[in-house]
């Protein structure tokens, strides 16, 4: 069997074009969508990601501001920064780059982001609304995976989706979004015995374990759709996913590469969420003026 490679870069570009049109519309009404990115410390990977996010914002005419704080910033100073951003009229979305240094209470930081500006979809309010199927910002990576499936013409309803990994930011919400589209969902994780016996039942397999080349063809049912959310470095420091692409590619019907699969979609959905935040704020401001 030969598999179709799902091109996240291309699909992401296509979506970005339509997001860019919405940015132009907002500009005609005097609004420039603004994203604040808070970066704590000097983690080189975080710096690269943050630079990519800023570049992507600017490429479609959005405004992005980087708030760089030292590694030893206090919890209170960080919370103050976020409270300040919550109040800013020109900032529609706030993203605090994770992970944060160990002395910082990550949960408290995320909970301080105003839900109206939580374009990452990580805050307790956003997560709760997502679980209830209410209107909210969806976490960018799972949201991006849903768009990849949609744009690739892959039906989700009635399929068995197996998620490997249960992180708050990928595995858990990924299962919810698939469930909302009528998939049957199984969660697996590090304590799942005989993992291949579960993954081999997957019509759609989501690999979000954070271990390089962990998923091999022994885990795959022939014809399965394989979505690789991992971003790891192999022994040669080369970027690679959680899926051993060369091993799995022939067995899968569709597969996402790393790089060029899910990663570009994560950033695309961050742009989408930020533009949506700006649109919502404009609508609200208009409604208030008419009262
Ligand atoms: N608050 C927060 N929100 C995040 O969304 C968030 C975060 N913290 N911390 C780190 C992770 C990681 N992440 C990536 C996004 C895009 C690519 C991406 O575009 N990757 C390219 C390759 C980039 C390269 O070449 O290094 C690709 O897969 O093709 C990767 C990683 C967002 N994260």
Automatic annotation (TrEMBL):
GO biological process, one term: purine nucleotide biosynthetic process
Keyword ATP-binding applies: no
EC number(s) stated in the UniProt entry for this protein: 1.5.1.5, 3.5.4.9
A molecular function GO annotation: methylenetetrahydrofolate dehydrogenase (NADP+) activity
NCBIfam families in the cross-refs: PRK10792.1 (NF008058), PRK14186.1 (NF010783)
Subunit annotation: Homodimer.
Pathway: One-carbon metabolism; tetrahydrofolate interconversion
InterPro entries: Aminoacid_DH-like_N_sf (IPR046346), NAD(P)-bd_dom_sf (IPR036291), THF_DH/CycHdrlase (IPR000672), THF_DH/CycHdrlase_cat_dom (IPR020630), THF_DH/CycHdrlase_CS (IPR020867), THF_DH/CycHdrlase_NAD-bd_dom (IPR020631)
The organism of origin for this protein: Lysinibacillus odysseyi 34hs-1 = NBRC 100172
Domain Tetrahydrofolate dehydrogenase/cyclohydrolase catalytic stretches: 6-120
Tetrahydrofolate dehydrogenase/cyclohydrolase NAD(P)-binding domain span: 139-281
Catalysed reaction equations from the record: (6R)-5,10-methenyltetrahydrofolate + H2O = (6R)-10-formyltetrahydrofolate + H(+); (6R)-5,10-methylene-5,6,7,8-tetrahydrofolate + NADP(+) = (6R)-5,10-methenyltetrahydrofolate + NADPH
Protein name per Swiss-Prot or TrEMBL: Bifunctional protein FolD
Keywords on record: Amino-acid biosynthesis, Histidine biosynthesis, Hydrolase, Methionine biosynthesis, Multifunctional enzyme, NADP, One-carbon metabolism, Oxidoreductase, Purine biosynthesis
